[in-house]
Every structure is written in C-alpha cells, then in structure tokens.
Amino acid sequence: MKKFNFRKVLDGLTAASPVGSSGGGSGSGAGGSVHPGGTAGAAGTPREEIQETLTSDYFQICKTVRHGFPYLPTALAFDPVQKILAIGTRTGAIRILGRPGVDCYCQHESGAAVLQLQFLINEGALVSACADDALHLWNLRQKQPAILHSLKFNRERITYCHLPFQSKWLYVGTERGNTHIVNIESFILSGYVIMWNKAIELSTKTHPGPVVHLSDSPRDEGKLLIGYENGTIVFWDLRSKRADLRAYYDEAIHSVAWHHEGKQFMCSHSDGSLTLWNLKSPNRPFQTTIPHGKVQRDGKKPESCKPILKVEYKTCKNSEPFVVFSGGLSYDKPCRRPSLTIMHGKAITVLEMDHPIVDFLTLCETPYPNEFQEPYAVVVLLEKDLIVVDLTQTNFPIFENPYPIDIHESPVTCTEYFADCPPDLIPVLYSVGAKHKKQGYSNKEWPISGGAWNLGMLYKLKTSKVFEKQKVGEGKATAEIVEEDPFAVQMMYWCPESRIFCVAGVSAYVIVYRFSKHEVNTEIASLEVRLQSEVEDIITPEPETNPPFPDASSQLPSLKSLSGSTNTVCLFVCSYFVPLLLSVKARPVRMPPGYQADLVIQLVWVDGEPPQQITSLAVNSAYGLVAFGNCNGLAVVDFMQKTVLLSMGTLDLYGSSDPYQRQPRSPRKSRQFAAEDGMLSSLAPFSFLLINNCLSPFSVVSVKGSRKLSLPTDLKTDLENRENSFSRSRSSSVSSIDRDSKEAITALFFMESFARKNDSAVSSCLWVGTGLGMVIILSLNLPASDDLRHSEPVVVSPSGTVLTLKGAVLTFACLDCMGTLTHQPYEVWRDPHSADDGDKTRKRKLVMHSPSSSQDMGDHQFAVICSEKQAKVFSLPSQTCLYVHNITETSFLLRADVVTLCNSVCLACFCANGHIMTLSLPSLRPLLDMNYLPVTDMRIARTFCFTNEGQALYLSSPTEIQRLTYSQEMCDNLQDMLGDLFTPVETPEAQNRGFLKGLFGGSGQAFDREELFGEATAGKASRSLAQHIPGSGGIEGVRGAAGGVIGDLTRARIALDERGQKLGELDERTASMMASAEAFSKHAHEVMLKYKDKKWYQF
C-alpha cells in the first residue's frame, strides 16, 4: 500500500514526496498552488526555463453571440425596407434576424414577456411592449442594440400598440379600453387620450373590454379604427375628437385588417367567422363567412368553429386578394394539427403545422398601407420553428430555412467547440452540406435578407441512419419519447485535421465516421464488446493465471466478411449470446458525400445486465484507434483492422500496480443483486465479439425496477450528492474504497509521452483517468512500418505507471520542455473513396507531433492532469509532481480544458458553483476566477465547453446556444466583430395617385399629428399615469461607434445620408405638387376657353 507523508502536507503545504514507483507526489493546498521544493527531476527548475506570458490582464468574460431558435416565442415584427425580422420571447429576449448569418440577441433587464414588437420602418429602431406594462425603444443603428427610452405605465395594462408608417406617434391601447399616444422621439406621453366611455355610445351600459386592435385608415391618417374585445368597433376622428361611426358584432373580436383603399375592413371572431365591413353601411357586415364551418342543410348559420386568432387582408393589382388567417378549424376534429389558411379567390389552402402558431406576418412589396400590397410570402412563427411560405407559387411551397435554428430538432445532449479549424475544412463542409438540400422547397431566395454578417450552419449528421428504424408507439408524449430515445448522442470526438468524427450514444454504441467527397453504397462494419467487472474481498484467481493484458496477436480474428460471418474471440468461454439494443443495418447503405459511417461498436448485455452508458471517448487517426470506457471498464478498438484490442474491467487495468490492492472477482455460477444501487452486479467473462448481425430488435428491459435510457451521466443526483462523495480524502482506508463497486473511466487521451520512469524517448501511449482520481498509462506497440499497419496487430500493454489526484479525472494535456502545447499525432486527411487508388495516394501521411515544436522534443515533458477537485503538473519521465493547485474544496468542476490563448497556453475550468477559472501552465497560477453562471439547470452542466482563443459556449435554453469569451482582447474588439443590423437603404417612393384621385379619394386637408398631439394643443399627460426611464442606448451607441476619425466620419455620413434623403423626398413632393398644379391650371384654362363665348342655353 502506498504511504503518504501527512506531516509535510499538514505542516508546510509546500512539499510532497513522491513515494514508490507507481505514482507522483501528492500535495495539498487551500485553493492555491503547491510548488514542491528540491529538484524537479529532469525538468530542472521550470520557473527559470519557461517564461509564462499570460497574466490576469489577458482575461475578461462577456457574452458574444447566441444561436438557435428563440425559446418560448411570443411576438413577431418585420421591417419591409430593411428586411429584418424581430422575435420576442416569454423570457424578455429579442432576437433580430436578417440575411443568413445575421443573428442578434438582446434582453430586457426585467425579464418580462414581450407582448408586441413594432419596427420604426427604415429608421433603425424597434419598439417593444412587455408584460410588465413597459414600452422600450431599442436603437438598432449600433452593433449591439440597446434601449434608448422606456415608459412604464403605472395604472393601466398595455394590450395593443400601433405605429403608423413614417409617423413618430405611437398609439397604445390598454386593458381599460383607453387609447394613449406616445411621442417616439422623446418617449413622453401625450395629453391626447381617447377614453373608452367617449368612444362608445352613451346608451351602452357595458364596458367594451380591452383594446385588441388599433390602426389608422389607409385613406385618411386622421381616422383611427379601434377594436374592442366584446365586438365593438369605433371609427374615431382624431381631429374632431369624436366617433364617426360605430359597429357592433355579437362575437368577440381577435384582429382587424384593412383593404388598401380604406373603404372596407375585415374582422376575425371567436366563433371562427370572418366579417367584412363597409364604412358606408356600418350597421351590419355586408359579408360573413365561416371558412371551415359545416353548411347546414336547412340554410341556417354554419356551425361555430375555433377562434380565428389573426387575419390579414392583402390586395393584388393583377389577381384576387389574399386572406390569410390562423385558427378557425372545426371543433369536430380535436386532434387536428394547428393550421394556417390561405384564401385566394375561390381557392382555400390549409397548411398544417407541426407546432402551435404563435404569430404570422404577410410580407408585401410596399410599406405604404394605401397601395396595392402585392404579398409575396408569409412568415409563420411557431412555438418551436420558423416557417416562410412562398405566396407567388400556386402550391405555396416553403422556403428552406438557412438559419441554424433547428438544433433542437432533437434535444441537445452534448456540445464540442472548435475555434481553430484548418482553413480548407469549412468550405468543404459547407459545400457538402449544401448538396443535402431537400426537394420541394421554393426556388426563390430567402426573403429576410437585411443586415451584414456571415455565419451559419455548415453540416448536419444523423446517427440514426446507421441503425434499423425503431417503431415508436403512437400517441406517446414527445417528452417521454425523448427520454427513451435510443439514438441520443452522448459524447463526440472530432479530429479536424484527419476529419475523423466519432460519436458515442446513450444506447452504449460508438460510431466512427470518415469524411469523403464521393457517394458510396456499402455495408457498415460492426463490432460487439463485452464489458463487466466487480470487486470482492475474496481473492480467487491469481494474477498470473488470468493476465489482464493478453497477447494482442491472439486476439485478431480472421476478418473475411463483416456482413456474412460471425467471428468471435474470447478470453473466457462465453455461455450464451446476449442481444443488442439497436440493430445495425445489415444491407448495403447509400451514403451521400460527407461523413460516412465506417464502423459501429456496440456494448452487449452480459448475464442479464444491460450495458452501461459510455463515460469517456477518445480517437486517434494516426494510431487508427478508438478508446472508450464506462463504469465497468475500458475498450480499445482498432478501426483500421476492425478488431477489438482490449476489453477490460477497470480493476484489471492496474494489474499489480493497484495502490489499493483490489482483486477482480472470478466468474461464479450464482448471480446476486446489489442492494445499494439497484442494478445487477455481476462479473462476465472478459471477452469481445466481432459480429455484424443483430438478432433481436430494441427493447427496454426492467432490471430490479425499470431502467430508462437517460441522457449522459445523469448529474441530477450528482449536483446533490457528489459534493459529499468526492470531499473524502484520497488517503482513506481500503475498506472505504472497496465499497465503491465500480470505478468509471472518466477521461482518455492518446499522446506521445514517456510511459515509464526509465524511458529515454517518447512512445505511443493511452492515458486513462478514473472516477477515483487514478491515472493509468497504457503503452501502445504499433507496427514499425506504416505499410504493415493493416496486417500486423497493435499491442496494448500496461506500463506500470499509476498517478493519483483528488476527484474524478476530467482532462489531460502534454507540454514540451519549453511549455508549448504538444498536439496529438494525426493522419492528414485523404479521401477513402477517391477514384485514384495508386500506392502514392493510398499511403498514409502522419504528423506525429505539433509542427510548431522542434524535431527534438527534449529529454522531458510536462503532463497536465485536471480532476474535479485539483490540477497537477508532472514532469516526465521522472513522474515528479511539480505543481499542484486545489481548485475547489466545496464544489467540483464540470468541465476543464487546456486551451491556447495569445500564443500561450492555460487551463480553463468551469465549476458547479458557477465560477469560471483559468490557471497558467505549467505553474498553475490563478489568472481568472469569476462567478459567472450558476448551474441552475442540468442543460448547462452537460453542454458547457471551452475552446482555443478565449471562447466557450453552452446551451442557454433547450433551443439556444450561447457563445461567450474569456479573452480581454476579444471583449475589447467585440463591437468590430459583430455584424450590422441597420444598413442605409432608400425608402421606396409612394405611387403617384394622380391629382383627381388625390383630390377625391381621401381627406381634403393634410393631417398634422404634431399639431394635434403636441403639448401646445393636447397638454401634458398625468405624471402618475406613466413614468419615463432614460435608457443606455445613446451612451452605448457612442461607445460602440467611438472608433476615432472613422467613427466620426461614419456618423457624419449617416447623418448626411438621412438629411439628403429627407431633402430629396421634400423636393420630389414639391415637384409633384407643382406638376399637379400646372396640370390643373392647364385643364382649367382649356375649359374656360371652350365655354368662353357660349351662351347658357348652348351648354
């Protein structure tokens, strides 16, 4: 048993003596680094040799970009000139989308749900109305939108808002039925108020209900249409401050839509009806229809249907108008999916949706409400999707969505982030992903095309295509299906240089993918692995009787046909075959260009116990090996030769080097249940199978209760119990260790390192970390020549080296003698299905170490190991522990990664208490410790990950990914890195209506809102009604644009553009008025000359 020097640990906290040949020294500190004194083995004095450049000034945390679908959407708005879309959510967030890649996220500090959004069309501003009865004005002319003004209503609740085109006065309807008017520029309430009791008739005894609609007449801007919930409609004259007409209907109103001429309007009601009203005869609607109601035989009114929640009435110059509405389906079909109905002439088209409809908007060619609208698309916001329907084609196809907003198509279970991919990889992924475009989409360009940016989804891969389809019971709740989804991805590993991609699934399978530009039709190879182990007090087999590492040459089966024969190699005789959970497709499978399945590895049932979920995964393309482990043991597979090299229980990996001297249990005839954890505890013969046929379909088997396929490494109980389990000292007694019946493999890492103390050169190794803080180094004996790689076996053998840490091991890394990060060996990518099969092209090109390091890697290196509790740096080959840093005593780490930043390297950690920390390497000096994100959800703990150049991400909601940076340089340059939401675009000209149409088609006098609603005429509003709150948007805008002379010139140019645009519009209007006046004068003179000399009786 290994002895610990407790005196030095407790006294000085400055030294720890490495004892014995199996491990390095153990130090302890109170959240700080421990630097052992004396010599540092072969490393000498690393503080003098390695100059660390990173300091705390290099680090700062801030959010950057958010991707995915807005979580719990509630509102929708569109700017038809800028062509950008805004989506509000129940959590107070706003997402602004433009051309593919333009995606901006902003958040209300109150977190109140967004009720409604209104763009100031082509003005670079947005108004949001929230559930806390506050209005906010957002400035979109800066890269990060910010609030300019806020107005908080104190006595009334906001129900509806309307902002006319090119107006600075916002109409606000309230729950009490009143209508207030807000100046957009100053965000001050006007004294002009339309009270509900003045809007309705004096004889009416009941309250009309909340305001559900506000809109000005397209024919006369001085007339305002007000819709009340109980079915009352008021046409209000803003000048005379009285109602021109009132209309009543016996069903509640949900929405109102104008005809562009301003003579008719359409209402949608709670009984599924649409009513069309004419201003000349407001006593009753001149047309009432229930589109989805059944016509009665006796001529009575059709049956009522579900409410039509929204209707839009859009006209076309050369065809019948479009009537688009949501809801209104018949009650006799309760299971029918949510639908959007499009009525065009006599044709009625019902588009069924996969999710409930939140809102929709019809996109039109003109922003002017008094012109032919010419609709061309409908944007439909669903609870979990965004759909755009093409109205220009008779079959109404949808546009293919270019945004990466469908990441929640199946629940996200894990994430990995790569910030420094090879430059040629991104275009390849993009081109291959573009070829997967589905059929049936509209052939037109995506209509939401505003802003300037370039970021999007590159490629999508579905692992379920490898397996046979599983039948899911109909009528099953979606959440229940997700929890039992056997295809859920649990872990991922990607090598960008070799383009090898590996996936571990919740059903205990591993899939190795290779990238190819060519389509192939081939069978998928598969392997089966058995992993089972136990611990018991009785020592039954002698170690030499059952050696933990058999000769690898005896493990190679004759690989004739993976699909036609079953090849089995066992260390012990197998009594029976156990079926798999999933069935790999046995027939040839067509694989399109991109990532193609090369090998499927599955863990099988052993003695009635289901395979345990995979807890660690590593792949190395240069070695041609994939390693994975779970709570039972470790498996190493050669994916080049399609053979299993190692299938071993965790305890057997130690051999004679186990510091706790535990022994594996021998196979026994009787099986017993483990009462503590409720799982079958048994020992299976250590064996592995090579097979391609699956004999039974998927089934969920009960094992002492019900076993559910859960998401990876269920941390729900961990967040409650792991604190206690990992707070115990690693020097606890052997009996307490023996109570842990299973020691999970938690980390794996392939690298070129010194496996033993007496090694003089680096060799291929596999570093294995366990849940008890043990690190085991396995030696990999590869064929001497790469030409023999496909024929000679790879031998995996123990090195005898065991290192110890406190807490489960999370990550490994290797630094060379100069402190530079040493990358893993890799194979340069080559297309496995290339048409040229020559020897030169088929020969592998291997890169065995980082190109930045020298050919001579020195006589020593540093191994960086981080666990849930502490980090250690060892000097190799001496295995001396140079530095120890106890990261946390009261919590535990969820993620740790060794990353590069500013041409240096550091250790980035994310703790369960929400702290993000960075440590220098190799000295483990604390550089950053910020309480950033408390782990309130398992989703965050499962998906948080770091990458190089100071970037990280996590799943902020079930549908959104939040990116952040911990680099001070990136925080400083964030404004320059973000895209532009507002781009200077000229407002389209209004159609020339002609003199006579302008004279007789509308109001005889111009409408001046400023004169009517201004303080001079309307007075001041009550101070207790609403409170004005200045925002920080102006300051942030100046700060964001403060780029010296360039920023000043940009602001000046934008101001001049706006001034020139307004002057140009004024000149055009003046010229139009002069032309109309000249035409009128000419016609009047002609009429005068014609009738000048005629008598009255000659007319």
TrEMBL record:
<comment type="similarity">
    <text>Belongs to the WD repeat L(2)GL family.</text>
</comment>
<dbReference type="InterPro" id="IPR000664">
    <property type="entry name" value="Lethal2_giant"/>
</dbReference>
<keyword id="KW-0175">Coiled coil</keyword>
<dbReference type="GO" id="GO:0031201">
    <property type="term" value="C:SNARE complex"/>
</dbReference>
<keyword id="KW-0963">Cytoplasm</keyword>
<dbReference type="Pfam" id="PF00400">
    <property type="entry name" value="WD40"/>
</dbReference>
<feature type="compositionally biased region" description="Gly residues">
    <location>
        <begin position="21"/>
        <end position="41"/>
    </location>
</feature>
<dbReference type="GO" id="GO:0005886">
    <property type="term" value="C:plasma membrane"/>
</dbReference>
<dbReference type="InterPro" id="IPR015943">
    <property type="entry name" value="WD40/YVTN_repeat-like_dom_sf"/>
</dbReference>
<protein>
    <submittedName>
        <fullName>Syntaxin binding protein 5 like</fullName>
    </submittedName>
</protein>
<dbReference type="InterPro" id="IPR013905">
    <property type="entry name" value="Lgl_C_dom"/>
</dbReference>
<dbReference type="GO" id="GO:0015031">
    <property type="term" value="P:protein transport"/>
</dbReference>
<dbReference type="InterPro" id="IPR001680">
    <property type="entry name" value="WD40_rpt"/>
</dbReference>
<keyword id="KW-1003">Cell membrane</keyword>
<dbReference type="GO" id="GO:0045159">
    <property type="term" value="F:myosin II binding"/>
</dbReference>
<dbReference type="GO" id="GO:0005096">
    <property type="term" value="F:GTPase activator activity"/>
</dbReference>
<keyword id="KW-0597">Phosphoprotein</keyword>
<dbReference type="GO" id="GO:0006893">
    <property type="term" value="P:Golgi to plasma membrane transport"/>
</dbReference>
<feature type="domain" description="V-SNARE coiled-coil homology">
    <location>
        <begin position="1034"/>
        <end position="1094"/>
    </location>
</feature>
<keyword id="KW-0653">Protein transport</keyword>
<keyword id="KW-0268">Exocytosis</keyword>
<dbReference type="Pfam" id="PF08366">
    <property type="entry name" value="LLGL"/>
</dbReference>
<dbReference type="GO" id="GO:0019905">
    <property type="term" value="F:syntaxin binding"/>
</dbReference>
<feature type="region of interest" description="Disordered">
    <location>
        <begin position="19"/>
        <end position="46"/>
    </location>
</feature>
<keyword id="KW-0472">Membrane</keyword>
<dbReference type="InterPro" id="IPR036322">
    <property type="entry name" value="WD40_repeat_dom_sf"/>
</dbReference>
<dbReference type="InterPro" id="IPR042855">
    <property type="entry name" value="V_SNARE_CC"/>
</dbReference>
<keyword id="KW-0677">Repeat</keyword>
<keyword id="KW-0853">WD repeat</keyword>
<dbReference type="Pfam" id="PF08596">
    <property type="entry name" value="Lgl_C"/>
</dbReference>
<dbReference type="InterPro" id="IPR013577">
    <property type="entry name" value="LLGL2"/>
</dbReference>
<feature type="repeat" description="WD">
    <location>
        <begin position="246"/>
        <end position="287"/>
    </location>
</feature>
<keyword id="KW-0813">Transport</keyword>
<dbReference type="GO" id="GO:0006887">
    <property type="term" value="P:exocytosis"/>
</dbReference>
